[in-house]
Design brief:
Length: 207
């Protein structure tokens, strides 16, 4: 699939949806002074993330997952990572590690700064506990919430030619090189399109 896995995906692909996950009308905090979270916010964020995912992926779709982390020095993605524990029969899957030094930066002279990437392929959607993974990504910016998964996680649907990235608790990008795979999601989840991107998205889907 010829989609470059760099955030923000929405601005790097010809067709995409940018959808609101955590509702801005609620907000993260119930009592910020006492560090009490608004659990309704997180419940809705998880529910929306799962609903969109299940609109884009069915159990038998052939998929891959890519996790990349910003690393300095020898930091790596280890097999103890939460990601691996959410995959059935993970040892039977194809797991490939790679290192990239050219993501998001113009100065590529510092050889100690790298993006570590693991790509897990030969999966079907039913092989992964995607609800747990989406929950972990919703929590990633809140160090005292569990489960949590650090880094950038991309779900690649090879059958539908779609890439999905829950970039944080606020939003999710779903992209493709063509409009057709995204049409059902555009219709079904139209009310969740982020307001600041709505005009751009509607122009693209209605042109």
């Amino acid at each position: 699939m010829d989609i470059k896995l760099e955030m923000p995906l929405f601005y790097r692909c010809p067709f995409g949806l940018r959808l609101e996950i955590g509702p801005a009308t609620l907000g993260v905090w119930k009592d910020r002074d006492n560090f009490i979270y608004n659990e309704d916010y997180f419940d809705i964020a998880r529910q929306r993330a799962v609903a969109i995912f299940e609109s884009a992926f069915v159990p038998t779709d052939r998929i891959s997952m890519v996790l990349q982390i910003y690393a300095y020095g020898r930091q790596k993605i280890h097999r103890s990572n939460y990601l691996f524990r959410q995959i059935k029969a993970v040892d039977a899957k194809v797991i490939k590690y790679s290192t990239r030094g050219d993501l998001y930066v113009e100065d590529r002279t510092n050889n100690r700064e790298r993006w570590r990437r693991v790509t897990i392929s030969q999966l079907q959607t039913r092989d992964i506990a995607y609800e747990n993974l989406l929950h972990a990504m919703v929590n990633q910016d809140f160090s005292n919430r569990t489960p949590s998964l650090s880094g950038q996680l991309f779900f690649l649907n090879h059958d539908k030619q779609i890439v999905l990235n829950l970039y944080d608790d606020r939003g999710m990008d779903v992209v493709s090189l063509t409009r057709q795979p995204l049409e059902p999601l555009y219709q079904r989840h139209n009310t969740w399109i982020l307001d600041r991107n709505r005009e751009q998205i509607e122009n693209r889907f209605n042109e």
